[in-house]
Backbone:
């Protein structure tokens, strides 16, 4: 096969352009810090990078949901702590009111104090988180309890998705922990106030105190349930953050360049390019213009 000057020139320019294209690609990578700057450079890699970004975005949204839900549950726990303290105070008043030597005025004063505590209990159970009531069932825009502690919410709980296909059920049914053996706590408190006003010491020290203890145990049990939900959410948050960190590391491995390596490659290509120019000037034969000078 005859090798002409035209063939040498064409091959030389083709290789020189290939070197220039490689240098341009490296310069783009060094300036952007990314392995690929256009989908056409590596469609499969770009597809994987986009999938990773979507997964990270979804995980970050789950993290926000988990964080918001932890705040909700912590608010519930704080409200129940206040509720338990109030009920325990009412219990002390019941025991004190069952004391026989008290006068009617004393019992009426105790009854009034119990009535005030009922209002305080309603207030603490009407706590809201970010404008949503935490014990109204799914009726989160409505107050769950009236001032005399009658429940007005519904008996539905709220589900929150905290990971793909994973949901946690929030215990938001206020009737669950203010009703014991079919008896609403509001009715029991009314009976206690009536017994105090009537001076019924036997009822106060007997059935009413026993029923109040059952209600107190019920609230304590419900708070334990809230605690279990909180523990699950904290564990989910840790898993979410660990997974997101791993995903971001994987994304960085796929889309970010190794700066030191790329600098080395760029220097190598630059040397090759300069060598190509030098060799090209030597191997290409002089043109007719060179002889006419």
Residues:
């Amino acid at each position: 096969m005859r090798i002409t000057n035209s063939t040498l020139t064409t091959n030389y320019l083709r290789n020189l352009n290939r070197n220039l294209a490689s240098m341009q690609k490296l310069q783009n990578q060094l300036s952007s810090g990314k392995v690929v700057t256009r989908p056409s450079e590596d469609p499969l890699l770009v597809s994987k990078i986009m999938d990773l970004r979507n997964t990270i975005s979804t995980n970050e949204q789950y993290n926000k949901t988990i964080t918001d839900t932890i705040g909700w549950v912590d608010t519930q726990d704080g409200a129940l702590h206040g509720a338990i303290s109030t009920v325990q105070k009412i219990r002390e008043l019941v025991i004190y009111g069952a004391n026989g030597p008290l006068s009617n005025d004393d019992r009426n004063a105790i009854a009034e104090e119990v009535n005030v505590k009922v209002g305080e209990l309603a207030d603490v159970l009407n706590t809201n988180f970010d404008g949503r009531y935490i014990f109204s069932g799914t009726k989160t825009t409505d107050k769950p309890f009236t001032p005399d502690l009658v429940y007005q919410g519904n008996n539905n709980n709220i589900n929150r998705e905290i990971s793909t296909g994973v949901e946690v059920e929030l215990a938001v049914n206020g009737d669950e922990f203010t009703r014991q053996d079919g008896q609403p706590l509001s009715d029991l408190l009314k009976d206690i106030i009536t017994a105090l006003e009537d001076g019924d010491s036997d009822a106060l020290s007997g059935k009413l105190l026993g029923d109040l203890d059952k209600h107190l145990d019920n609230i304590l049990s419900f708070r334990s349930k809230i605690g279990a939900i909180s523990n699950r959410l904290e564990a989910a948050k840790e898993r979410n953050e660990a997974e997101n960190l791993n995903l971001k590391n994987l994304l960085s491995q796929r889309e970010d360049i190794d700066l030191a390596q790329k600098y080395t490659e760029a220097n190598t290509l630059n040397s090759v390019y300069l060598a190509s120019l030098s060799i090209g000037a030597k191997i290409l034969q002089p043109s007719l213009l060179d002889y006419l000078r």
Q: What stands out?
A: The CA atoms of residues 122 and 146 lie 7 Å apart. Helices lie at 5-32, 43-97, 104-125, 174-177, 185-198, 201-255, 259-283, 288-292. The chain has two domains: 1-33+259-293, 53-251.
